[in-house]
């Protein structure tokens, strides 16, 4: 019989136990061991570490047990200690506050927008790496005291739960999530009524959303929920599930996230007194509409569109996470236009100006499509990729937005991702660290809250990691063996449950008791299943893989997990192919596929593996943080040099799979070559090193690699390091730029840019002379100097409006300059009747080999973040350089 109404009955905690409610609703418990242990003590039978949820646990504890706990003085003492620790964590100064006290100019607050957040399995609002990264960003910001406000959507069905059919086909399930049963609090007005965010829709309709708040340590996370009574059925479903529905549905989600998210932040700050954000950080293009809402706010204060745009850009940071155009959200321009203007949202903002922000105006672009990443870049003065290699790929991919500049000069930097160690490091590893060098020092090092120097790490990485060098080999090996044994137990339990859901009877499953071996080299592979991640590369030569799995003296075992997007049948076929291989009775004790990959599974999988495998098509992995999480537990990486591994690979940390991306254009041939390289590494290097034992039965060289991974790689991969870089390199400069743009300054900057654009067609390099005897017969001596004299047409601009540069460096056979260096030229006099200005300066010839130079003109203004910001550059005509014989291609020796 179906109930006609649903509601939640909350437990009533005895007065002495009231602090448990605060502990349960602050998600710091998800990475704080002592708080987790307290809840486990409250109900040892009900606490399941893999999918722990204190809110649900308290709702299930009997009244009798609560009465026992209220009278248990030992438990109450622990409760007091943990509660006081949380209070000190929330209120005390941390790294950010220390920086402020030392005079650093930092933003009063930062709003961080993301379509998904992976904070804990108890709040399933994530699908993969983007969400996990966002969750780790919030947690690290909390540990460092960064005044961040997270903004996302509350999906009533989350992403999806994955099971397998009998024949191995992925099946999706969408359980309904009740916010009242989650660690969330409804944001309410002073009179107790729920706060509402409202968006105008075409046809006079409205989209309402409530705002739920999750508390992630010190950081509030605001989640907008459209499942409210004021909405019609269609609008109620806007936040039904993550990455679901067609284009119109996705557009509404992204409008609610961006526009509604800004309104939610304003409401939250009004109600709580939280400082208003000076910086808005867009984590991928899904939230890009937030910039339009901020423009609307400023237009209402009297600014024009152009001045408002400059103000918004100054305080905005945009992070791109995809290295392929297909991974970017794009909408039909007509669909976007229909949702804005007088019959929709932002009625005071010109629709054509909105469309222009997302139009693909570059060569190869589709003018009829609205590109969310393009809009994100145009609305942010500062942008970054998520690894050094991804930064380079992004500069190439988006170079059309900055015509005339080489990709290396495109103003997209990189901040390599990191992971939140207290979330991902196994408790056993934490206990070993605490035992060896103290709990406080271990926690400080893992959180990245303490700065110093670590050999091979970036400046500002945590100290204390070198203490691992003092841990004896036997302790490290026993720890690794214990973690592997835990994984074996977890795998058997999950595999049994999976087979039962696939329809197998208990009598068929006795073989599961022999699945995996705690003394066998264990390889992990777990991630989303788009084709470029190549889930099935390991199956390229199945017989060879079987030989590896069943080797009589050096066997390997593999644990695989991953979800394909519900609409991706190709990805589902890859899952099925892997599952069918793993179902083979000959190898099923050595290779398993675990369905429903999520945070709970990952927290067992990373520590229990000896090797973490990653074999994407290079360079399509933007960062790939799963290997970072594994490394923090002493797991070695075996990976294609893509993402972060390209940046930080050393033989001490694992093995690099050779790639054929520069030679093999045929995809099948490339897979064949790289699979062969993978098998060779496993056969000849990985397995022998694991099984090569000394007289004490210890693999000395393997243990040393584990030690070096923890000591040298560990500090680099921390989310604390990542968030500090965002603060110092992006947030602080953005806040200063935003403060500099008073309304008057914003108008002046907008007018200046308009003047530059109008004059630029008449700007150019008219004449270049090299006044020196250094060049003789097309060559010159190393260390000599060319004195350059250049005539520049400024088209009515003043010299203060531009910078004139010499660009010089080695040249290739087609006279393209590589490894370019730039040198400024200075005005040397007034202008002639044709408005040509004289510039002069020296060019030191400091490199040997084929060498060349050119001259260019860039816009220059103190409020620009880079010379390439406007995408404008003027250079010489075709004949420049021929009159002196010193053009590009000059040979120096």
Structure description:
By secondary structure, the chain is α/β, with parallel strands linked by helices. Helices cover 37% and strands 18% of the residues. Helix 19 packs across helix 22 (599-608). The longest helix has 29 residues, at 473-501. It is globular, with a radius of gyration of 30 Å. Residues 450-462 and 878-893 have low confidence and may be disordered. Keywords: Allosteric enzyme, Carbohydrate metabolism, Glycosyltransferase, Pyridoxal phosphate, Transferase.
Summarize the SSE layout with pairings.
Elements: H1 19-25, H2 33-42, H3 54-60, H4 63-70, H5 73-91, H6 95-101, E1 110-113, H7 129-144, E2 148-153, E3 161-164, E4 170-173, E5 185-186, E6 196-201, E7 205-216, E8 219-225, H8 233-236, H9 247-272, E9 279-283, H10 290-300, H11 305-314, E10 316-319, E11 330-332, H12 333-338, H13 351-358, E12 369-371, H14 372-378, E13 382-385, H15 388-397, E14 413-414, H16 421-424, H17 427-437, H18 439-447, H19 473-501, E15 521-526, H20 542-549, E16 556-561, H21 569-582, E17 591-594, H22 599-608, E18 611-614, H23 626-631, E19 636-640, H24 643-648, E20 654-657, H25 667-691, H26 700-713, H27 719-740, H28 743-759, E21 764-770, E22 779-780, E23 785-793, E24 802-811, E25 817-831, E26 836-844, E27 849-859, E28 890-892
Parallel strand pairs: 1-2, 1-9, 2-8, 9-10, 10-13, 13-14, 15-16, 15-18, 16-17, 18-19, 19-20, 22-28
Antiparallel strand pairs: 3-4, 5-7, 6-7, 7-8, 11-12, 21-23, 23-26, 24-25, 24-27, 25-26, 27-28
Helix pairs in contact: 1-5, 2-5, 7-27, 9-10, 10-11, 11-27, 11-28, 17-18, 19-22
